[in-house]
Queue: 2 jobs
Job 1
Amino acid sequence: MFHRARAAEQSQDIGTNTSNNDTIGDMINQRLGRRDFLKNSLAVAALSSVSLPAMAAGTPARFTFKEIEAGSGPYHHVAEGYDAQVLMRWGDPVLSGAPAFNPTAQSAKAQELQFGYNNDYLGFIPMPGAAQPGRHGLLVVNHEYTNEELMFAGIGVQETKEAAFAKMTKELVDIEMAAHGGSILEVRRDEKWTVVEASRYARRLTANTPITLSGPAAGHERLRTKEDPTGRAVKGMLNNCAGGLTPWGTWLTCEENFSYYFRGAKDGHPEAAKLTRYGIPGNMYAWGQFYDRFDVSKEPNEPNRFGWVVEIDPFDPTSTPKKRTALGRFKHEGAAGIVAKDGRYVVYLGDDERFDYVYKFVTKNKVNTTDLAANRDLLDEGTLYVARYKGDGTGEWLPLVHNQGPLNAQNGFASQADILIDTRLAADALGATKMDRPEDVEANPVTGKVYVALTNNNRRTAEQTDAANPRAVNRFGHLIEMTPEGEDHTALTFRWDILLKAGDHMVASTNASFHPQTSKDGWFGMPDNVAIDSRGGLWIATDGNSPSKTGRADGIWAVETEGELRGLSKHFYRTPAGAEMCGPFFTPDDETLFVAVQHPGETEEDFKGPPSTYDNPTTRWPDFKDAMPPRPSIVAITKRGGGRIGS
Ligand code: FEO
Ligand code: CA
Ligand code: CA
Ligand code: CA
């Protein structure tokens, strides 16, 4: 347990969901087993037939690019005929006055003006009125977390029990806090993509940026602290993982593993059991050593002010971001939304923890399509639901509403604010389905279907399997496809199916299910982020592949979803060693795919040697200079000579 990825994985081993929600029984496994059998027998028939291409006759392949070889090494790779341009690296200037990046003389002041660490979600918003909307716009980027062993020379890994953060000074902690949060960049494509210098939209958000709590829980006494007696004014956002863009031009950025930043004894804490359900304190950073607000024994309510979806207006750099409490508090992965038939906005949400839940939020009011500013606080009113997946391939959305069902004062929920602050506990009480770590949940605007990436869950036992989470010790994760009733995203029921079970489908014991024509390079493990191109094509980014787990680095795969090729996956891009793949996002013309290479050079979870560090990293991507550590970076992928990505 010498590096953050492994520490994070192990902390999730606790599995904070101790509710005894039913897992669905054997009948379902029988049903699923039979369906899998049918699929597999079709697969065998196809493979044993002489003319394989005949199988594809009915459905033309959506993705015609030549796939890359799966593998791992110090460099990144993209499909033949494509360019992968490093656009922005950790430490590159964002705001005017930013000093040139010097990793041995870094300061918090410099870092506040420079691109932060560990870029995760990214979104591209075309500049209003741009002649070519795919060539000029704002790029919004999350900076999820920091790796002290890769950022700072000579200190090595600090978050282990043995190291005990002994070398973390206040100066280093301040740099870490400044490297968190987000960046807003104006970008333009001419010959190549460039970041517009001194743009009036350029902005850095950090762990100290003033943010307003809004919605039903704002101002509640459980959100008040010594520094903020109003319960409405928070400093910063933490561990922003994935997110989404709204049709009214704002950016939703999601606080995921906020538990990591807290320390301090829970004994005597007024909400000790609730802290436990959220994995607090996570003890993965030294911040509480220097700032009382990150010590739960000194500031008991501070953790309640994190774990929210934050809405930011990227076109107004002076605007105060808002934490939208109506969308609940949990380890928010993403917040991808879609306008429903009746004009209301629906946001799909995953809570990324073993045995946690899939949610959606439906606004009370409709999106105003003529006056975008009128949607300013649309996300403050609406209904949050949690998903229950049934064994017959249907499912229902259970409302998290005060005084409905068990969500009342007798059960510890005195108000809607309590339900939102303790969303996980409220969802436990409703009997939601415990999932294998929900990451992105994303609606396909072309087909109306919703994709759920379940990344893995190696703690699920055989007794705990159910139809929606059918594998015990689910090392490689799976993808669920949901179809809302009546193609209405506000509907309270849905149908669902498993699109694929990840892992090597050529090894029977893995019990993976890709389309049989998927090559040795085309399968993947650990799906995380989901992107959908403008024609409805599905693209998956992964987190957690490694040479010893899957014989491959993380990257991007394109997956067919329709017709006879459904479940056929092809490998498009792969990251350098130790990185995870984040943020895939297409420009509206589908001619650029932006990806975020997060934590290149991080020690892989199952790596047996000494940890990868600043002084001795597994890669120095993307600079490959002896004096430069690996740097998390944004990459712009384009087709040589022009054309749609994937063609
Ligand atoms: Fe930050 Fe759930 O990935
Ligand atoms: Ca991540
Ligand atoms: Ca993620
Ligand atoms: Ca992940």
Note: The pocket of MU-OXO-diiron (ligand 1) is lined by residues 144, 241, 256, 333, 352, 439, 528 (CB under 6 Å).
Job 2
Amino acid sequence: MNEGDMRQRLMVALDMPDARQALHLRDQLAEHVGWFKVGLRLFVAEGTALVRELLESHKVFLDLKFHDIPNTVAQAIESAGALGVQMVNVHAAGGSEMLKRASEAASAFPDMQLIAVTVLTSDNMPAQQAKLVAVERALLARDAGLHGVVCSVHEVESIKKACGDSFVTVTPGIRWGRQDVQDQKRVADPAMAVQQGSDYLVIGRPIIQAAMPVDAADEAVRMMLQGLD
Ligand code: C5P
């Protein structure tokens, strides 16, 4: 794996207030990262028009964490598929029936990965308990036909062991050096994330609030490469 491959595993969370700021950052990071993640803040402010614009240059993870009755979630997944995003997520806590309906809806869109949130990386749950719950929810997601899960780096190894190597893990809660962990609890640095087998690293504030976002993204990629050693 080379630097280019690592950039394709880095997802920058565009948790910005409006399209102008989001697109400015997209332009700055254009050649440096493969994915952008659109979450609640930006989507509520700017909606699908911005997602379409991002899709012209990058892959997009629509991180809206659907959690509702099975029918409503399945319909939301259809809308995400029609929009053309490459990744979308639901809460595994929504239960098996919801996950199965979501997975059926996603199967009409082979280029879109459907991912379940296991335990939020900001959750205060003790690490050992978080691991058990994350593995249990990952198995539920795998059995329902989902492609993978969002989890902390600390749970990747156990999840891969339980669900198989090709089951995708997407890990937020990435911090390095003297960075403030903010509201995240179960954090790890980019090298450790890659070492543990995380497929995609989600990084928000350490890049988007950096004085030099390009340098921060490049530093993350360099550390990811160290994780391969
Ligand atoms: O700024 P920071 O790097 O903490 O951003 C992490 C991003 O990942 C945020 O957009 C957050 O909503 C998202 N996320 C998370 N934990 C999850 C799922 C998504 O932190 N379980």
Note: The longest strand covers residues 59-66.
